[in-house]
Amino acid sequence: MRGKKKAAVRPKTEAELAKMRVSCAKLGEVHARLKEMIRPGISTAEIDEAGERFIREAGGEPNFKNYQGYPAAICVSVNDEVVHGIPKRDRILEEGDIVSLDCGLVYDGFHSDAARTWGVGEVHPNAAALIAHTRESFFAGIRYAVAGGHLHDISNGIAAYLQPYGYGIVRDLTGHGIGRALHEEPVIPNYRMPVFNRGILLEPGMTLAVEPMVTLGTWRVYWEDDGWTVRTDDGAPAAHYENTIAIRPEGECEILTLMPGEEADGSGAV
Ligand code: MF3
Ligand code: CO
Predict the structure, then answer these.
(1) Whose C-alpha lies nearest to ligand 1, atom 2?
(2) What are the respective helix, strand and coil percentages of the chain, to the nearest 5?
(3) pTM greater than 0.90 (yes/no)
């Protein structure tokens, strides 16, 4: 067919975006409260229970809970666990661990999704660098999250930022569209994509969850027998950083799930 190709991904209306903003702002506050809980001696189950309480206090529902059978409100992934770690009462955080908290909620029909990785007490400098660079790769990628750009410009922006460090960039999981469902089209790779596949054209109102998963070793991962926990093949630590964003008609995208005080230039509450 000739003429303009219709987008497979329906952008949100301004009214829908307004609801996304509310859902996402609540999630940013939940993450800020979760950050305060990270300390040696706490169990990953305690973090999950607190997170579920924070979500409900904000008037939201935990959208991860029972998602395809996922048994908790939050994914808590320690060290070589990349994502989707199931919280456990006997999994106790220790000084030097790095822990990623992936959390989402649904409010007024709209989903939000964000992840942060924190060091527990004093961590190895390489682990601290991994956390910082994973976060920075997100911001490097979303410079390309502009109307008229192409989806894989974001992927390539992330990969280009990380490339000099020699990290592994996980390929088995991706970012995604988000809105009335937790996972919508499109699939968003966080790794380098070939030039002959630029991805969809980005349009104002598209809401996306961009979420680089980065390791101190290989990009290869495996699923634990619990069917959820994703670990690095080589046991190297991994970090994860994710925000829900919105493409704007002009200029930079809007980052919807920042924690209060968290700034895109690296200052603030991180
Ligand atoms: N943020 C996670 C993702 O986009 C959501 C995981 S769903 C859960 O993959 F069921 F694992 F919680
Ligand atoms: Co996500």
Answers:
(1) 102
(2) 25, 25, 50
(3) yes
Distance in Å, CA 91 to ligand 2 centroid: 23
Phi–psi pair at 47, nearest 5 degrees: -65, -45
Going along the chain from its start, the domains and CATH numbers come out as 14-255 (3.90.230.10)
Tens-level pLDDT at each residue, the chain (270 residues): 455 555 579 999 999 999 999 999 999 999 999 999 999 999 999 999 999 999 999 999 999 999 999 999 999 999 999 999 999 999 999 999 999 999 999 999 999 999 999 999 999 999 999 999 999 999 999 999 999 999 999 999 999 999 999 999 999 999 999 999 999 999 999 999 999 999 999 999 999 999 999 999 999 999 999 999 999 999 999 999 999 999 999 999 999 999 999 998 766 656
Sheet containing strand 110-119, strands side by side:
74-78, 98-107, 110-119
3 state SS of 184: strand
Closest residue CA from atom 7 of ligand 1: 64
